[in-house]
Amino acid sequence: MDRSLGKGFLRNAPQFTFVLKLVDAACIAGVLYVLTLIYQPIQWDVRFSLLALIALGAFYFISEIGGVYQSWRGVHFRSELFRLFIVWSTTVLFLLALGYITKTSVEFSRLVISLWFVGTPVAMAIWRGVVRLLLRHFRLQGYNSRSVAIVGAGQLGVQIASVVKESPWLGLRFQGFYDDRAFESDRLSWDGELEGTFHELVEKSRRGEIDLIYITLPLTAQHRIMELIDQLADSTACVYMVPEFSVFTLFHGQWSNLEGIPMVSVFDTPFWGVDGWLKRTQDFVLASLILLLISVPMVLIAAAVKLSSPGPVFFRQKRYGMDGQEILVWKFRSMRVMEDGDKIRQATKGDPRVTPLGGFLRRTSLDELPQFINVLMGDMSIVGPRPHAVAHNEEYRAQIKGYMLRHAVKPGITGWAQINGWRGETDTLNKMEKRVEHDLWYIRNWSFWLDIKIVLLTVLKGFGGKFAY
Asked: 338, 345 in Cβ contact below 8 A?
């Protein structure tokens, strides 16, 4: 029996999104209302009604930018909750700023408002958790599912089929492989799940029996692919091309065109246009605020460096920046010897070159505070792959595939690799490979919210690391 409600209410349809927004509104206004009942003699009046309306408007506006109401099918619940937390936190900052500007914050109980700020995201998180559990239950029972067909019974097609079959909570029902080649060769890995030919797939799609189609044919089958796509255009199925080189090789792949000629990027930077402007604005604002906050500690550290050992206060070293251009990276001097040649030895545990004060600065990453000046100058970003010495770059680019792709973005003070433990000494090739792997993941998956997440995790976890000497 076909239990699919794919064309009904439970799909990611406008009706479902509307219900989500209504319940979020109930959480925002409801938590505030309950708090006014609990903490008497505070009474709900026009002030609280206006506050709730402003909060709703701000939350909905920021949610559209932050993608809170996108489809979260197949995405980990933690990611959805983190996005919700960031959007609500931004809403709270807006309300605080508005209250300060209009001088109206004194009209509300600080206790009630504080509990409201904390209680609202908790209520919305609980509500979303319940929705997830219900959808998971329905999907495991066969409801709210979408039928999936895979064109091409090769290794890539089998890989996608395995993901679909092993993850029933995604709500995807595997219908089988469709491949004319199965009748031409016995070398395919379809494992007996061949449903039919391309012609049969087209006919089923036209009858509305297939919701999703993944085309995994090799690029050498371009003629077959184009012919099949032309025929599937006479159906309502969603069709996805899974190229032979796959998304695991693409580096910020996206469609573009050159005077009407379509093309897809294989290697590209995510920071063009609006995204580039957003990243630069984020860096400039945060770096300016942080430098104001750490100006006094930086003066004290500079004095301590000068008094503790002979030599300059700052150490400048050539590193590769965006597009592989050389930049000068600033740090507080932490060693007696300052190397910047063709061969540079990484700091190791108990390294005699490191001064006593320098050891403390390196373990806590306080030696890197001057790099916020690099951020203001535009050479670095707050979040990005850590810059390596030029000598190390030349060494590792010959050993690690895709190493130089790290330079599609500006180097950062902290990054995805650092908060995942890949910081400090890289005394083995595997450690550097892991760092590069995390750096490339960050660039492929960059978003404004990912940067905020990394900054927050850096603050929570600290700048230190077990390999930082």
From this structure: no
CA separation for the pair 406, 447 (Å, rounded): 16
- CATH assignment at residue 210: 3.40.50.720
Cβ atoms < 10 Å from Cβ of 263: 10
The answer to whether residues 64 and 121 belong to one domain is: yes
Residue 322's domain comprises: 273-461
Q: Does 311 reside within a domain?
A: yes
Strand locations in 101-254 (E): 146-151, 172-178, 194-196, 212-215, 238-241
> Which pTM does this prediction carry?
0.58
Shared domain for 347 and 198, answered yes or no, is no
pLDDT in tens, the chain (469 residues): 344 444 443 444 566 778 888 999 999 999 999 998 888 677 788 889 999 999 999 999 988 887 888 777 667 788 888 888 889 999 999 999 998 888 888 888 888 999 999 999 999 999 888 888 887 777 667 666 788 999 988 888 888 888 888 777 677 888 889 988 654 444 455 455 777 888 899 999 888 888 889 998 887 888 888 999 999 888 888 888 887 665 445 666 666 666 667 677 777 778 877 778 889 988 999 999 999 999 999 999 999 988 888 888 888 888 888 888 889 999 988 887 655 555 555 655 656 777 888 788 888 888 889 999 999 999 999 999 998 888 888 888 888 888 888 888 999 999 999 898 887 666 788 889 999 999 999 998 888 888 988 998 888 876 555 544 4
